[in-house]
Amino acid sequence: MIQWLHNRYDLYSGDKEEREELDNLRTEVQVLENKYNLKKGIESDISTVEEIRIEELHQKQIEERKTHRPNNVKKEYSPKVIPKTEEQINLIKEKCIQNYLFNSLGDKELKTVIDSFEEKKFSSGQNVITQGEEGDALYLVDNGELDCEKINNKGEEPIYLKTYKTGDSFGELALLYNVQRAATIKANTDVLCWRLDKECFNNVIRDAAIQRRVLYENILKKVEILQNLDPYELGPICDAIKTQNFMKGDFIIKQGEIGDTFYILDEGNAHAERYFESSNTTKKVKDYESGGYFGELALINDESRAASIIADTDCKCLSLDKIAFQKFLEPLVDIFLEKSKDYITE
Ligand code: CMP
Ligand code: CMP
């Protein structure tokens, strides 16, 4: 019996290692792909030196794997503790709750992050991050406003991308993918930010964020309407995604209810049905398969749900709450409304 258990254990652990190795490889491929896309976005003329640098990095990672040193083993990390008042701690906590990169951290991780945050003040007009520089920190906005701009091709004028406000964070890309800063962030007003050093980010946040982004980005890329977004915008959306499972026959959405969630169908099939008062009938109005989305209308129009969505099989959905939907998918509202003109109305 003992021998049998030993054999089983060896077999199982072998499988597990293989699975972990496969997962690591998948993540690595995706990270390199993201890195490559970012590079393409930053500089249209990637120099040969940089191509060699990416190649060298890739080789280094292959060598590391050959020696069976897993990528996610961390060196001894002794977090910084920058003293703060109770009031500052509560203010930071409040901002972290509003931020999807931080709001899923456990209590211990959150404490480490809060201890490591350093107060930084910037005057209106000052650059907090400059495109092309090395990245050493991520910033969380306490108060004030900052503009994000990007130069797509050398010699061209910067293009305005977005404004960061209280509770927003920026500067994660250089840390996640170990690349140069992909954009410039300039203070629009006097600004107070909390600066999180690269070491803390890498030890506490990076792995989970990369895994989430790799997993969900692959699914989001299948959603036609999201292809209208700058590929960079998918990353922050992934931070905000939650998954929800439904069983065959479940109502994912009920017509007439108040809606505060937007859904993307990842696995399974579902359909929409709508009750029409004029004819006192309920009709099936749409079928959904993987990559389909629903639940946008109530969030855009601030109205109750216009139809019911019912699971035809067991379903797995990705969901975004109303705040995330408004924050990240606002640039798509016109396209959502245009597409909703195809919905059956009677
Ligand atoms: P990082 O590249 O470290 O520094 C610049 C930051 O700008 C980047 O991380 C993101 O946090 C932010 N940013 C916002 N929009 C974009 C965009 N479209 N492309 C690149 N960076 C962006
Ligand atoms: P919402 O009203 O938030 O919730 C129900 C969803 O059903 C709706 O958003 C649309 O995404 C989807 N839907 C599909 N077909 C229709 C239709 N004919 N009329 C209204 N909503 C529809």
Describe the main β-sheet briefly: 4 strands, antiparallel
* Tally of strands: 16
Sheet-strand content, in percent, reads 15-25%
- Our count of helices gives 10
Mean pLDDT: 87
What is the overall silhouette? globular
* Amino- and carboxy-terminal Cα gap: 68 Å
Rg over alpha carbons:
23 Å
Main β-sheet, spatial strand arrangement:
1-8-3-6
Structure overview:
This protein has about 350 residues and is α+β, with helices and mostly antiparallel strands. The chain contains 10 helices and 16 strands. The strands form 4 sheets. The protein has a 4-stranded antiparallel β-sheet. A 4-stranded antiparallel β-sheet has the order 2-7-4-5, with no helix packed on it. It has a 4-stranded antiparallel β-sheet with strand order 9-16-11-14. Helix 6 (about 200-220) packs across helix 7 (about 230-240). The termini are far apart. About 25% of the residues are buried. The model is unreliable at about 45-50 and about 65-75 (pLDDT under 50). The structure holds adenosine-3',5'-cyclic-monophosphate (2 copies). One adenosine-3',5'-cyclic-monophosphate (CMP) binds near residues 253 and 307.
What are the salient characteristics of this protein?
346 residues; alpha+beta; 4-stranded antiparallel beta sheet; 10 helices
Write the layout of secondary structure elements.
Layout: H1 2-42, H2 48-66, H3 86-97, H4 107-116, E1 118-122, E2 127-129, E3 137-143, E4 146-150, E5 159-164, E6 169-170, H5 173-177, E7 184-187, E8 191-197, H6 198-220, H7 231-240, E9 242-246, E10 251-253, E11 261-267, E12 270-276, E13 281-288, E14 293-294, H8 296-301, E15 308-311, E16 315-321, H9 322-328, H10 333-340
Antiparallel strand pairs: 1-8, 2-7, 3-6, 3-8, 4-5, 4-7, 9-16, 10-15, 11-14, 11-16, 12-13, 12-15
This protein binds adenosine-3',5'-cyclic-monophosphate (2 copies).
The site of one adenosine-3',5'-cyclic-monophosphate has 17 residues, from strand 12, strand 13 and helix 8.
